Amino acid sequence: MSFHAAIFDLDGVIADTARLHLQAWRQLAKELQLPWNDAMEEGLKGLERMASLEVILGHRSPDFTDGEKVALASRKNDCYRALIETLSPADLLPGAGELLHWLRSRHIPIGLASASKNAPAVLNALEIADCFTYIADPSAAAPKPAPDIFLAAATGLAAEPAVCLAFEDAAAGVDAIQAAGMTAVGVGDRNALQNADHLLNSLVEFEPERFFSAHNTPSPISASIA
Ligand code: BG6
Ligand code: MG
């Protein structure tokens, strides 16, 4: 099968930012004296901000009003924003920069399907924003495992879902890719990602020549998020 477009999750696939999200949530849990369970960590991957907060609050959730929850999520986000200020190209995960440049040099359209509203800031800090043909807007899409964000990315790339190869580190993301009718490459934890069509320990193992053939015409650059 030759794919025409590549779509990436960001946190935990392109950059080691999944651990920064967890660090910020762990900090909030500590401040609120909530129990932190390491087993929660895999389940938090890929979860949208307010859904993550509900997991952290657990049975204490009813103790907080909606307004207080928004303030807590914003507190976590301030902590996360401070953490990503330290990011640089050195924080690209192994193989990520090489793969993006391989695809770019062959004019294969590249989309981003991240749940994170901080994705544009992270891409800028990693100095890879220019690699992306289209960045899907997470605030306009139902959260993973719904297929919406991957379908939005495919639409932005003008590619049919069946010819999109998509990369994820979270089980909810693999489910979203497959619900979108795309082929899923799971990167990371083999137990969590066993439903993926292809499994990799890291992007270093990915052999792009087996999946893509070069496009003849350059793809337009049109990032969607401001
Ligand atoms: C996902 C992360 O990419 O984005 C989650 O895997 C995070 O951990 C989610 O909660 C939302 O991110 P943000 O930056 O909008 O809070
Ligand atoms: Mg991820």
Number of domains: 2
Mean pLDDT: 93
Count every beta strand, where a strand is a DSSP E run of 2 or more residues. 6
Evaluate the radius of gyration: 17 Å
Helix-strand sequence: EHHHHHEHEHEHEE
CATH superfamily of the largest domain: HAD superfamily/HAD-like
Bound molecules: 6-O-phosphono-beta-D-glucopyranose, magnesium ion
Q: Give the CA-based shape.
A: globular
Query: Which secondary-structure class do the elements indicate?
Result: alpha/beta
InterPro entries: B-phosphoglucomutase_hydrolase, Beta-PGM, HAD-like_sf, HAD-SF_hydro_IA, HAD_sf, PGP-like_dom2
Protein name: Beta-phosphoglucomutase
Active site: 9 (nucleophile), 11 (proton donor/acceptor)
Family: Belongs to the HAD-like hydrolase superfamily. CbbY/CbbZ/Gph/YieH family.
Question: What would you say this structure looks like, in words?
Answer:
The protein is of the alpha/beta class and 226 residues long. It folds into two domains: 5-15 and 90-210, Rossmann fold, CATH 3.40.50; 18-84, Orthogonal Bundle (DNA polymerase, domain 1). It is built from eight helices and six strands; from the N terminus they run E-H-H-H-H-H-E-H-E-H-E-H-E-E. The protein has helices at 18-31, 40-44, 49-57, 66-84, 96-105, 119-126, 148-157, 171-179; strands at residues 5-8, 110-112, 134-135, 164-168, 183-187, 198-200. It has a six-stranded parallel sheet, sandwiched between helices. Helix 8 links the parallel strand 4 (164-168) and strand 5. The protein binds 6-O-phosphono-beta-D-glucopyranose (BG6) and magnesium ion.
